[in-house]
Amino acid sequence: MISKHSDDILRKLLRFIRLYAKGTFNSLDKELNPEVFIFYYVYENGVKYNTIPLNKIKSKLFNDNDLEAFSLQNSIINTNTLEKNTNLMMPITESYFNNNNVYKDKVVLISDFHLIEDVLTSIVTLLDKDVFDSYYHLKNILNPIPKSFLGAVCNEYIRDINKLLYDYQRKSYDSMIDFKETLKHSAISMLQILGYSGSSINIYNNLNKISSLNYEGKPIKGKIIFTDSSNLKKQSMHQSIELIMEFNDRFSQNNYRHVRKLLEITRDDLYLISDTKHIKGIGRINKNYNYSDENIFIIEFTNYQTWNLNHMDVSMMNVSHDRATLPREVIKYTDFKKQIRKLFKELELEKIKNLYKIIIAATKQEKGTIIVISSNARSEATRLKTQGFLVKPIELNPNIIKSITSIDGAILIDTNCVCHSIGTILDGLATLKGDMSRGARYNSSVRYVETIAKNPDYTDCLVVVISEDKMIDLITKYSIK
Q: One matching Pfam family, short form (predicted)?
């Protein structure tokens, strides 16, 4: 089926790409768990052979029945056509993965097909879909602008794999692709969302330069709003941006020291306003901004050569010393999902993701808080109405949660992210399972969970305790045993 020479070449290629994939994705989140296969078609003397993965450890991706089911016959694809247009295989390969339940929990990345020796070769990379989807992504941005930093990395990863396959035997592997460069180019690509322009590499370099400047000996801190230039015209100022002070003459971001000096003016709710190329003035974001508009983004400078790309208060990408990473959340999605699935086994994955986003948003405020997740949150809110503020049911989003967690007391929500009570004091009987080294939030939550667990009239709950020092505890009847 395949010559020993070709077999040796492809195995060497596979080993190299696996190292590249691990370097790329493990540096972002090891739980993405990248798996790499070489996917190949062999034909000789006009005869096309079966498709198999070049991997003795993993089970075969395709067998004869799979090939027959997808009608891979010479009447559809023949060897003459393949040599002229190898990408005719792409739709069939994508169809296989998209329609195979074995891969429903995977993000599948497929490179173009390239002819190496006598073998038509593609690289297939699988990522954990739950972990991939747990990171914040935009929904309404149009292609080809990436919707998330992880999406940008996937695009750049496949682009580099294609370059490697195309330049095979022309250059050495090591000189063709480097995962550090892949991540850097992904960050540059991600910055297209700032103003829907093609100047993202200039923006990236400008931001790095600005972040390297001190002012009167102080390291940089400050924020810039970026939005499309059409939103900053005088006759159509973006309805969610209030321009407090407008500069007589706009100046370029290339004027690094001007920008650095003006960043000293910015505070929690004051920003420099930019159309990507120029700084227009100083302003703030109105509370009526709709997250789904996805046309206001913030660059937040946090320290020397360190800055974040945010959609409002949600971090999408962090850059430190020219190295781009995913935001490091104080609680991992996989840990949260594991705990909540113990209590609510039938809860849909989308609802778990929405709850996780609410929890992450709650960690962004300065004070600590408590969030109680329960399927009977409404009845609990009614029972505790004299110890908190009963509210009309409202579905929470990250913007709302930041405001309502600013007061003391717990927030009671159901598994649909609907809030029923805020500022609630939790009750509960004295317990031996508390921790005197921890604060009142933690110990009152333990008492509440233990009391609920012993009462057959109440359903189980998960209590998320966020301390002022950003420590997070997930408290359930299982965790306090």
A: DACNH
